[in-house]
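Reviewers of the previous submission asked for a worked example of the structure-prediction workflow described in the proposal, so we include one complete record here. The input consisted solely of the amino acid sequence. No template or homolog information was supplied to the procedure at any stage.
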Amino acid sequence: MSEVLTEKQEALLQFIESYQLEFGRSPTIREMREHFGVSSDNSILKLLTALKEKGAIQKDDTPRGIKLLSSVKEKLFSTELKLPLLGMIPAGGPVLSEEYVESWMKVSDDIVYKAKDSYLLRVKGDSMVDAGIFEDDILVVCGSLGPKIYDVVVALVDNQNTVKRYMKDAQGRLYLKPENSRYDNIYPEGELCIQGVVTGLLRFYKK
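From that input alone, the workflow returned the following structure tokens.
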């Protein structure tokens, strides 16, 4: 693809990529139209024609005729993918900008729940050692996975990211439980902001 895309063309291409990554197939014209809140198929068809002419997509005349994008094929059919290692997570959730991304790392796809929603976070402190999570370990975290009780999660507490176990007490109150007897349970005063569920762990041994 050599030609520059317009803002609307780029937005549609990104939606197609996200849809293919999540469902393994392409969206229909109707699904694209509904996503962008337009009433006419014609506006979507014009954008698709432009994307095809610019070499951004390959398409036939079937309802889901857009071929898998090369970027999607690489992520879906590779045993490795790259995830961002974040230094911290702002209140609004993971942000892929230079301000927060320390580096990108290759990881095996079998420890990643949803590649497009996942990121890496380095562990600080020893509050989870009894769960086998140590300082400087790197956690694989899915930001779109809803937490279940007993899951290890990344949460925002007092404007700081913390890794704890997601729990509920006998009175039905949600709290965060450290896996180290030296630390107390955390009962949030306000809303408990869960920023992701841990799906894997990476550990590198220093030589």
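The chain has two domains: 7-75, 78-202. We consider this example representative of the routine output the project will generate in years two and three.
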